[in-house]
Write a structure and sequence with these properties.
Blueprint (H helix, E strand, L loop, with lengths): L32 E5 L15 H11 L3 E6 L2 H13 L3 E6 L5 H15 L2 E6 L9 H4 L2 H22 L3 E10 L12 H21 L5 E7 L5 H9 L2 H4 L10 H12 L10 E4 L3 H4 L1
Helix pairs in contact: 1-2, 1-9, 3-5, 5-6
């Protein structure tokens, strides 16, 4: 029996092979053609950066048998993702596009569909949080920039992609638990991620006519380059307790997206999955 009054050590969930990107592919996406928007990666410290969500998803989808179009506003970052896929023998291509610009969105979707021979899946892994903290620090300019990327960009992409997606295709929005609970202290970011739920449900409604599903993966605290950059600006983020005693990895977010992209979730539509070790449910 543990001594009463003695604090127990916080449980730390051991990473699995999937958590570390070391599990082999299982053919779950064989023959699929998927566009990952935001499949590059920000560099904070090249020597120590962990893998980001978009790169992990792109590599995982290719590992599972898909042909992947990796789109990013930073072409060299997308090309680095492509190089990693090619090193594993996967099939991928890079597209440079800024989804805050409508003309580039249309070109991105057209190019992906043409070069892949069609589209069976779309992942929207985009998001920025800019400006000072709190309503007092929010400016109209920061608000407009955030919503142009986090909300208008996904809307424009879905508008362009829906007619080109094959029947039974899947769309996955990468959101954040900031859309479910307050916490980022960036009003525009929280509002944009919450509004993404409304967009997702509308896309699911229109897509249902052809069996095209739309769902959201809402990550909690994730150890990615962008996550580390956010922690530099808000150190309390790095100290926030999590039920599993550690932050998620980009691979763990990628496997949640894989579930939604694959036929394993064929009857799941218009839903939000929080990947946060339970922060939004039990903390």
């Amino acid at each position: 029996m543990a001594d009463e009054g003695k604090p127990s050590e916080r449980y730390v969930r051991p990473p699995s092979a999937e958590s570390q990107g070391e599990a082999p592919g299982r053919g779950r996406l064989k023959g699929r053609r998927i566009l990952v928007v935001g499949g590059g990666q920000r560099t904070v410290d090249a020597a120590t950066d962990p893998i980001g969500n978009g790169r992990a998803m792109s590599i995982l989808f290719a590992r599972e048998g898909a042909s992947v179009a990796v789109a990013d506003m930073n072409l060299p970052a997308a090309e680095e993702t492509i190089a990693r896929i090619a090193a594993e023998g996967g099939k991928a291509m890079a597209i440079e596009a800024d989804i805050s610009k409508p003309d580039q969105v249309a070109r991105m979707v057209d190019e992906a569909a043409a070069r892949l021979g069609g589209l069976d899946g779309l992942v929207l892994n985009v998001g920025v949080g800019v400006g000072a903290l709190g309503l007092e620090g929010a400016t109209p300019e920061d608000w407009d920039k955030t919503l142009a990327i986090n909300l208008r960009g996904p809307m424009l992409t879905c508008r362009a992609a829906l007619p080109k997606l094959a029947d039974g295709a899947s769309i996955v929005f990468i959101s954040s638990i900031a859309g479910l609970v307050a916490g980022s202290r960036l009003p525009a970011y929280d509002a944009s991620k919450a509004a993404l739920g409304g967009l997702m449900r509308h896309v699911a409604l229109e897509g249902a006519r052809r069996g095209v599903r739309a769902n959201i993966v809402a990550p909690g605290l994730v150890d990615t380059p962008l996550g580390r950059l956010a922690t530099q600006g808000r150190p309390s983020r790095g100290r926030a307790p999590t039920p599993f005693g550690r932050q998620a990895t980009g691979w763990e977010i990628a496997y949640a997206a894989l579930f939604f992209i694959s036929d394993e979730s064929v009857y799941v539509n218009a839903q939000v999955m929080a990947v946060d070790s339970g922060m939004t449910g039990i903390s």
